[in-house]
Design a protein that fits this description.
The protein is α+β, with helices and mostly antiparallel strands and 223 residues long. The chain has a single domain (6-221), classed as Metallo-beta-lactamase, Chain A (4-Layer Sandwich), CATH 3.60.15.10. It is built from six helices and 17 strands. The strands form four sheets. Strands 1-2-3-4-5-6-8 form a seven-stranded mixed beta sheet. The protein has a six-stranded mixed beta sheet with strand order 9-10-11-12-16-17, covered by helices on one side. It has a two-stranded antiparallel ribbon with strand order 7-15. Helix 1 links the parallel strand 4 and strand 5 (59-63). The chain starts with 5 loop residues before the first strand and ends with a strand.
């Protein structure tokens, strides 16, 4: 029997590790994906849905934290197969649709190489152009299948990076605005705007969410 791909984080919230990136499934009757991993995440997501007793058609919404290919890699699959609604910030939507290109920068000299490699390999990792159904601005409170989720614009890693805060559950989906390392928060290592990234990191960690779920690394739980 194949090992389970989902890690239960909290009631109705599950983590799926796609090699080096995290994506999250909310089981709210229908399924909400917070980010969708790389293109290779398609089969693990299908397995995760089966673990929840769900079908592909149960995927109803995609909350995308930013435009990078390791976070939107399978979004077009669920948009096509289940007509899932795609939510993405206004500043990142043109990049996901390939109407605009952006460059990233390392936050320290050693990370400049990482940023350069991202620029080289990103074209080979892209899925098809992705059109956004609901444009986010930040400050909205979304009704996500009965869960109120706050949209927090957290620019820096990308100009349109967003975090999604289920305040009543104490869960913050931070995307890549905050990384997790052995249960502790860390700032992003590649950015589009260095100063904004610092401000966003401070803003999100200051929320002191009971559970902070990063795009990379391990969950951060408040002691």
């Amino acid at each position: 029997m194949a090992a389970e791909v989902l890690q239960r984080i909290a009631d109705q919230v599950y983590r799926l590790e796609d090699r080096f990136v995290n994506l999250y499934l909310l089981d709210l009757g229908k399924v909400v994906l917070v980010d969708t991993g790389t293109r290779r995440a398609e089969e693990p997501i299908r397995r995760g849905l089966r673990e929840l007793g769900k079908e592909v058609q149960d995927v109803s919404m995609l909350l995308l934290t930013h435009h990078h290919v390791d976070h939107i890699g399978t979004a077009a699959v669920w948009k096509r197969e289940s007509r899932a609604q795609v939510d993405l910030h206004a500043l990142d939507a043109p990049v996901a649709a390939r109407r605009e290109r952006r460059r990233t920068h390392g936050t320290r000299p050693s990370m400049m190489v990482v940023a350069a490699l991202m620029g080289v390999f990103t074209p080979f990792m892209r899925g098809p152009p992705l059109e956004t159904d609901r444009i986010l601005q930040g400050g909205e409170v979304l009704d996500v299948l009965g869960w109120p989720i706050e949209v927090i614009h957290a620019p820096g890693h990308t100009l349109g990076s967003c975090a999604f805060y289920a305040r009543s559950a104490g869960i913050l989906f931070a995307g890549d605005a905050v990384n997790g390392r052995q249960g502790k928060p860390e700032p992003p290592i590649v950015v589009e705007d260095r100063h904004a990234a610092v401000d966003s990191y401070r803003k999100l960690t200051a929320l002191n969410a009971a559970i902070l779920l990063p795009g990379h690394g391990s969950p951060v739980r408040r002691a």
